[in-house]
Write a structure and sequence with these properties.
The chain is built from 9 helices and 4 strands; from the N terminus they run H-H-H-E-H-E-H-E-E-H-H-H-H. It is α+β, with helices and mostly antiparallel strands and 224 residues long. It has a 4-stranded mixed sheet.
Length: 224
């Protein structure tokens, strides 16, 4: 009888814990995978980065992103507490769109940021809205949405200027090269150079007057 009483007590305590676990933020150790409560959505990033380094993708992604940031403004700024793209932001994004269209094999991410005014929770949502606004604007120029990703924003956690006040330079989005489109033939063949230096090769063709066949041969040789 004493043992049975202890068992009833343990069962009651377990039921109470299960009920508590299913309340609040909706997370339950009985229905979610281990670690889900702290997963910010980027647990696979380290593995992806290691894979890209070993198969050579990371080297070319870094080189292409370096070129992108040198040739095109990668950042746009926003008014206080706003995700609206003003005229200056739209002008920058048109430049970005022109550059992005040259490389249909390449994927991009847009990261949203805010200044330090307001709560971090609110600012993360605001930063994401800004990233989504940029992605939506870029798709107007014929860029597939599958190549553009608006990331869960950094909110107020990565300010350019550390100040508790309003700071326009912190209210920004940053566009980055992040990888290659799966299934792109040039990428699967490992011919990254033909992608990265495509416009340089084509500009040389225009000057020398090479035929289309010769141009394709030159691209093939560059990628080998």
């Amino acid at each position: 009888m004493i043992v049975r009483g202890h068992l009833k007590g343990l069962l009651s305590a377990t039921s109470l814990l299960a009920l508590v676990a299913c309340t609040g933020d909706g997370y339950s150790t009985f229905t979610n995978e281990a670690g889900a409560i702290v997963d910010g959505g980027d647990f696979g990033s380290a593995t992806m980065n290691n894979t890209m380094i070993h198969n050579g993708d990371r080297q070319y992604v870094v080189r292409l992103n370096d070129r992108f940031t040198k040739e095109v403004p990668s950042t746009v700024n926003f008014a206080f507490n706003s995700a609206v793209l003003d005229a200056d932001a739209q002008a920058v994004l048109r430049h970005q769109a022109d550059w992005i269209r040259q490389f249909p094999e390449v994927r991009f991410r847009v990261f949203g940021h805010t200044d330090l005014v307001g709560t971090n929770a609110y600012n993360k949502k605001l930063g994401l809205r800004r990233a989504q606004a940029v992605v939506s604007y870029l798709t107007r120029f014929g860029i597939s949405r599958s190549r553009l990703e608006a990331m869960v924003s950094y909110g107020e956690t990565q300010p350019l200027v550390v100040t508790q006040g309003r700071e326009r330079r912190n209210r920004r989005t940053v566009t980055e090269v992040t990888g290659f489109v799966g299934g792109a033939p040039l990428v699967l063949d490992g011919k990254y150079a033909a992608i990265i230096y495509r416009d340089y090769v084509q500009s040389g063709v225009a000057v020398s007057g090479l035929s289309g066949v010769q141009m394709q041969s030159g691209l093939k040789s560059l990628g080998d």
